[in-house]
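RECORD TYPE: inverse folding
INPUT: structure tokens
STRUCTURE:
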């Protein structure tokens, strides 16, 4: 089955490289295009069997499953532009969170799926958030789950938890990357450790933490209990976190939800018009 990818920017390229590394698809099954065509050609340089199409229209003519990896406000005009080329046999996969499967189904006649990936998928890890449209056949539902299972843990979600699920699975790596950088910076500022050594130790710590969770050795609460010896040094550090963290993450989610709602309103206007 030919898979078309419209948009080979950051996330589009991450998915392409993950699928190829995991052997989820063969290179000759992929047809790529991008507004700046050179980005698609750069991928072809590394994977010679991948096909590059001159336009989105050409991708839809040649592929059955279409991964749409463009910015949210670009999707509606692009789908309208491509309206003569969609058939009922196509399966459209959108990777943007503010646009619902119902909105997509309102302007295309085909099977529709929304998959919100994570940068962690590039390591064939992390979650991918899947919402199926009402018209999406059981055949395509099985196919999409199996495809993304090769690079992630697929989680089927309902529309009402889209934003928070995306915050946790997709935005989370950026949030915790920032916190880890602050963790390293404080270590360097307050002690004689080099930034290189602090980065190595922190990176190895977080990788090890992930392995403990992956292997179900500990849950997050039991892991904290194991490290936290009563009256010990870890406890002193935790007391600072408890005192100073406050409602930091509540405020993070409030801000991301507010921005999400702004994007939803802009997209509503597009689809209503």
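DESIGNED SEQUENCE:
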């Amino acid at each position: 089955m030919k898979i078309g990818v419209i948009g080979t920017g950051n996330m589009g390229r991450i998915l392409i490289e993950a699928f190829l590394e995991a052997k989820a698809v063969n290179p000759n099954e992929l047809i790529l295009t991008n507004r700046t065509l050179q980005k698609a050609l750069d991928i072809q340089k590394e994977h010679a069997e991948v096909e590059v199409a001159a336009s989105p229209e050409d991708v839809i003519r040649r592929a059955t499953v279409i991964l749409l990896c463009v910015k949210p406000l670009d999707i509606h005009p692009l789908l309208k532009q491509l309206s003569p080329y969609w058939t009922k046999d196509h399966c459209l996969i959108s990777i943007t969170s503010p646009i619902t499967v119902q909105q997509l189904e309102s302007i295309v006649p085909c099977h529709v799926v929304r998959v919100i990936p994570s940068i962690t998928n590039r390591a064939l890890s992390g979650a991918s958030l899947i919402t199926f449209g009402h018209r999406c056949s059981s055949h395509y539902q099985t196919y999409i789950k199996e495809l993304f299972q090769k690079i992630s843990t697929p989680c089927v979600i309902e529309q009402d938890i889209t934003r928070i699920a995306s915050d946790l699975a997709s935005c989370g790596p950026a949030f915790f990357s920032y916190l880890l950088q602050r963790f390293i910076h404080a270590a360097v500022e307050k002690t004689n450790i080099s930034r290189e050594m602090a980065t190595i130790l922190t990176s190895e710590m977080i990788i090890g933490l992930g392995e403990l969770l992956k292997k179900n050795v500990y849950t997050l609460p039991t892991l904290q209990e194991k490290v936290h010896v009563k009256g010990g040094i870890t406890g002193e550090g935790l007391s600072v976190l408890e005192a100073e963290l406050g409602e930091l993450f509540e405020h993070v989610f409030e801000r991301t939800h507010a921005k999400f709602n702004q994007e939803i309103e802009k997209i509503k206007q597009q689809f209503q018009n």
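NOTES: The domain at 165-252 is CATH 1.10.3730.10 (ProC C-terminal domain-like fold).
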